[in-house]
């Protein structure tokens, strides 16, 4: 083969190598940019779950019990915690270092939901989404039940509910609040306890579906602007 042909092939090989190198660099750069925090991935890809917060004491007990059950007989555990071996594991308050580990790990960036770290957070640091969570996402809040329904906010919500059910017979309204009177009256009467209790229980329903009836009704009849 003549020297010109040899140089041509060498040049082609060099340019191919350069192009390949550029392609690899772009791919690596792209992969690096795609890293997202675990908490972001949970929000984007798992609407049925929410990260546990400090106020979820009851839920923390459950995942802490599960963590100890899974790792108390192992030589090590993902959060490097000291686990006391017991015959029967009971629910108890989650320690500070366990909750802190969950918070820290949820901030870490990973490639996707199949990563080990994501799976760890999903199993031990989350709870099921509730209607109340979905309401918060809309910029509203579920009105607390309180001791009575005399506040103007409760009166307004009760009026909306009554008007939506004004043509229903007693007990035939959306939530079957028997004994309630459905009239065309515009009078702002006190919201009864069974209505406020229903708002509370419906807001605690676990679902990540905004088409769920509990979400739709709580948004209409039990929510106020933040």
Give the overall shape: elongated
Biggest sheet, in brief?
2 strands, antiparallel
Instruction: Report the uncertain regions.
Output: 1-31
Number of beta strands: 6
Structural class: mainly alpha
Q: Within the largest sheet, what's the order of strands?
A: 1-3
Number of domains: 2
Give the SSE order as H and E letters: HEHEHHEHEHEHHHE
| Rg, Å, rounded | 28 Å
- What is the terminal separation in angstroms? 80 Å
Q: Tell me the strand percentage band.
A: 5-15%
Q: What's the rounded overall pLDDT mean?
A: 85
Number of helical segments with 4 or more residues? 9
Helix percentage range = 40-55%
Textual characterization of the structure:
By secondary structure, the protein is mainly alpha-helical. A two-stranded antiparallel sheet has the order 1-3. A two-stranded antiparallel ribbon has the order 2-4. A two-stranded antiparallel sheet has the order 5-6. Helix 6 packs across helix 9. The longest helix is centred in the N-terminal third of the chain and has 31 residues. The radius of gyration is 28 Å and the shape is elongated.
């Amino acid at each position: 083969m003549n020297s010109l042909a040899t140089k041509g092939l060498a040049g082609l090989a060099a340019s191919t190598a350069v192009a390949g190198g550029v392609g690899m660099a772009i791919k690596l750069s792209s992969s690096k940019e795609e890293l997202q925090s675990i908490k972001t991935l949970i929000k984007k890809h798992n609407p049925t779950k929410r990260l546990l917060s400090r106020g979820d004491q009851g839920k923390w007990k459950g995942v802490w019990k599960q963590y100890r059950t899974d790792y108390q007989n192992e030589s090590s555990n993902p959060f490097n915690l000291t686990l006391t071996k017991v015959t029967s594991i009971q629910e108890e308050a989650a320690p500070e270092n366990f909750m802190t580990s969950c918070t820290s790990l949820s901030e870490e960036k990973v490639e996707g939901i199949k990563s080990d770290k994501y799976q760890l957070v999903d199993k031990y640091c989350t709870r099921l989404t509730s209607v109340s969570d979905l309401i918060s996402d809309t910029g509203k809040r579920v009105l607390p039940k309180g001791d009575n329904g005399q506040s103007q906010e409760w009166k307004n919500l009760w009026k909306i509910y009554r008007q939506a059910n004004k043509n229903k017979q007693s007990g035939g309204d959306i939530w079957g609040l028997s004994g309630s009177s459905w009239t065309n009256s515009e009078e702002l009467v006190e919201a009864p306890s069974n209505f406020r209790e229903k708002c509370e229980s419906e807001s605690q329903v676990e679902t990540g579906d905004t088409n769920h009836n509990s979400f739709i009704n709580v948004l209409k009849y039990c929510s106020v602007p933040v």
